[in-house]
Structures are given as C-alpha cells and as structure tokens.
Model the fold of this input.
Amino acid sequence: MTTLAIDIGGTKLAAALVDSDLHVRDRCELSTPASKTPDVLRAALQALIEPLQAQADHVAIASTGIIREGTLLAINPLNLGGLMHFPLVQTLKELTGLPTMAVNDAQAAAWAEYHAMTDEISDMVFITVSTGVGGGVVSNGKLLTGPGGLAGHLGHTLADPNGPVCGCGRTGCVEAIASGRGIAAAAQGELVGCDAKTLFTRAAQGHEQAMRLITHSAQVLARLIADVKATTDCQRVVMGGSVGLAEGYLALVRMFLAQEPSVYHVQLSAAHYRHDAGLLGAALLAQGELS
Ligand code: ADP
Ligand code: BMX
Ligand code: ZN
Done:
C-alpha cells in the first residue's frame, strides 16, 4: 500500500510517497501560492503531485485550515493569501482518481508524533510554530478533531488583549504574535520586510531587535504550553514547524516554561519526524481509514 501524502502549509506545499512501513520517498516541495483564487492552489497541487501520483494507491492530505468533511475552511485566511475555502478531497479525487482523505496539518502531525512514542504516554499535544501556530491534541490515546474540525486550534487562544489583530478576527491571538508571520509583522526599522527565517539569521549574528522578537515569541509559546498543561494534563508537548524546530528556539521556550509554577511544567521535545510529521500523520490516518 503506497500513500501519496500531501502537506499544505501557509508557506510551502510538500508531497511524498509513503510506504506501509512509513518510509518516505520522492519528497518534493513548492511554495504555497498566495492567492484568493482556488484555481491557483489547484494548479500548484497538480504540478506538485504529477511526478508521484501514478505510483500511489490512495491520497492523504494534511492541510492548514479547519478541515470539515474534506473541505478546507481557513480560520486565518491571511495565511493563504486570502483563500477562505477550498474543496480538498474533491480536487485531489478529480486530479488522481484515487481514494482521498484530509485532516488538519497539526492534528496529523500530532498523530504521527504520538505513534513514534515508545514510552507509556496516553496524552500529548503537538504544537507547530510555522506560518501560523497550530495544534493537535491526543487525549487518552485518541486524536481529537472535534465535531467541526476545530479541536486543537491553539494558535487562536489569547496571548495579549492589547496585541495585534489576528486574521481570524480576534485580537491578541498567540498566532498573531508568535508565529513566523507574527514575528515578521512586528519587525521595525531596518528589519521591516524580513521573514522569520531571516530574523533568526540576524538574531544568530547578535542583532538585538531580532533577538527580542524571537524571545518574545518563545515567551508567548511557553505561556501557551502552561495553559495547555492546565487544560489537558498532557504528559508531553512536542514542537514542530520551521520556527519551532529552528536552532535555539526550543531551549528558549524551555527556559520560559521553567519560570512558570511547577504544576504547569511538562516534558517538551522537538518533533521526531521533524518536517515530515504532517505527511506521515496523514499517511498513518489514511492507511487506517482507506485501506
Ligand atoms: P508551513 O507553514 O508552510 O508548514 P514552515 O513550517 O516552513 O511552513 O513555516 C514557515 C515559517 O517558518 C515562515 O515564517 C519562515 O520564514 C519560517 N522559517 C523557515 N525556515 C526557517 C528557519 N530555518 N529558521 C527559522 N524560521 C524559518
Ligand atoms: C492557522 C490555521 C490552522 C493551522 C495553523 C498552522 C488556517 C489557514 N490555518 O492557525 O488550521 O493548523 O495555522 O498552519 O486558518 P501552518 O500553515 O503554519 O502549518
Ligand atoms: Zn486568531
């Protein structure tokens, strides 16, 4: 059984073939088009999967956005260039003629990371710090998706009532401050226009403002993790996404979490599957559902 796994993020699209033993091959990436028009995303997905689809038995999609009955509904359309709605499962079925399923990207990654754990853990939470801030919750061994797909959208909890307005319509969400886009949006002076990746490079070179922006993101994440511990009593939190996995970031989050009262402390680790957690989680879920 070979899965064509697709990961749709706010910055990049990834696809790969995943075998039943979770071996990932022929991984490829494209930039996510920033367009309100669904046809533009459809064309990008078509180009991405074209070299892979003939070898696949089914399709599994991990995507940013609320995934409800196979459709992507953006909670923060700004992360997708204003795109609010996209028929994911229908589009991939039309493009490939294969059985297709879709799940939120952070929910998928949570499932893969839970699967990778060798110790007795029943409750864990995955957090991606990437274009946005996403989350997936495994409670008593079960992945929570919610009746409408919203479960785990931790990036849209409150970090600062006086903070920036979030693309979801609320003010001061964790995502508006701590995500890659949030970090970049707060840049001032000579750093205006830099993306988060560039800001990490500048911080590593000792640029003070860049260091402050990254430190603030890590502090907001640590408070979110304390809230998550209070809500779920999870035994472990796993971090992913290109910001979450960036050099030095997890150590900063750990430092701020250690400053919270000890009841909020929780084991914190980097994603075992690194940037492939979404792809593998979708493949695992599809191999259960579609085979
Ligand atoms: P997606 O959101 O599409 O899943 P990523 O997980 O790569 O994609 O997250 C994209 C965000 O991460 C962007 O804000 C980008 O600037 C930032 N980023 C990408 N690479 C790095 C890096 N090496 N270090 C820090 N930030 C990075
Ligand atoms: C946003 C939201 C979540 C997603 C999270 C991380 C949209 C389009 N996405 O909060 O569904 O899980 O971003 O997404 O509303 P990523 O693109 O940063 O991986
Ligand atoms: Zn929000």
Observations:
- Residues 9-10, 64-66, 74-76, 79-80, 104-106, 128, 130-132, 134, 153, 155, 175 surround BMX (ligand 2) (CB under 6 Å).
- The chain has a mean pLDDT of 97.
- The longest strand covers residues 24-31.
